[in-house]
């Protein structure tokens, strides 16, 4: 086994590791005592659920709260936690507990898993990640438990509180409320909305950003990466909240009949959850087409690199937007926060975005072939949600054919690991060209 690990490249080990975790989780969910009916999940549904949990997506073919026993729910929760933080984080923790040294190969794997630039301080970062995660999930779980205790027995409230805290911090979106309506009963509840939105946002910033914010007291500085993630997060969240408020203001099926505060909270939650949590307080199928299209864009963008979220990542979007702005103004350099973005970074961003777009287009076309009873918007929404590991659905997921479910499984897997492996592949040291072809002029536009 050790020889195999030494032979495989870091991306292959990550793919293999996630695949093994998904397989183990799927096998556990097929056990009779994993479901309320005592029959266990059919294997394809079990693989779908395990993939959705491990890839912190949240798309479901069966309702979590109504279908699974506590054992099944804990299996899902464990998969969410492992998938959100990455199995290498837990492997490193095990090595540290056993007093083993972290080898160069394992440090390379950690660098790949966190999409980090260098290997310096990775073990220290892992320790802090585990501490940050435990602390944030504990605070979120306590707040939600207190709130839920007004609606259910205290034991159930604590269980629900911590389940939803872990699920949303890891941007998974699984819930236990029963039915496919999510958290719609709490659409105007500030305690639930603000707590879960905080968990989603913090989890989506990325552990590198969280670590820099923690060290800011001493360093008094943030990297360009952190500045981009923080500023873009605020801009997208505020801008999306305002747009959704306008788009849904008169929609009686969503926020139209709510109070002023309820309208704001409903719009705010719907602006935050596509990045890329997947829980919802508004019925997705009843949203206006304007809001649905905005949600698709947000799901495709995602959140911060090295976070629990998916998508092409917010830094990729920011670099491409800055490149567009520089070209429009006729500038030679792309500048963000008084720092010039090198051409290699721009090409990486373009590659990741184009790969994501190709995946979404291909999956949308394929779904339109296998699932012929629905609208194009549903296919595009489902494909983007799976690629962005979001978990929002217009209601298509439970009705997917076996071929459609297999396709979404592969899309969730690619969405969770694809950008990481692409980033690793294109950051390999380039060999100098033996010769250069003559330049060719092509008319653009």
From TrEMBL:
Query: Which GO terms of the cellular component aspect does the record hold?
Result: plasma membrane
The answer to whether UniProt assigns keyword Cell membrane to this entry is yes
Q: Does the keyword Transmembrane apply?
A: yes
Q: Which UniProt keywords apply?
A: Cell membrane, Ion transport, Membrane, Potassium, Potassium transport, Transmembrane, Transmembrane helix, Transport
Indicate the transmembrane segments per the record: 12-31, 43-62, 74-98, 129-150, 183-208, 228-247, 292-325, 346-369, 406-426
Q: Which residues form a coiled coil?
A: none
In the bilayer, the protein is annotated as:
Multi-pass membrane protein
Q: Where in the cell is it found?
A: Cell membrane
Q: Which GO terms describe its molecular function?
A: potassium:chloride symporter activity
Cross-referenced NCBIfam families, in alphabetical order? 2a38
Protein name (Swiss-Prot/TrEMBL):
Trk family potassium uptake protein
Organism placement in taxonomy: Bacteria, Bacillati, Bacillota, Bacilli, Bacillales
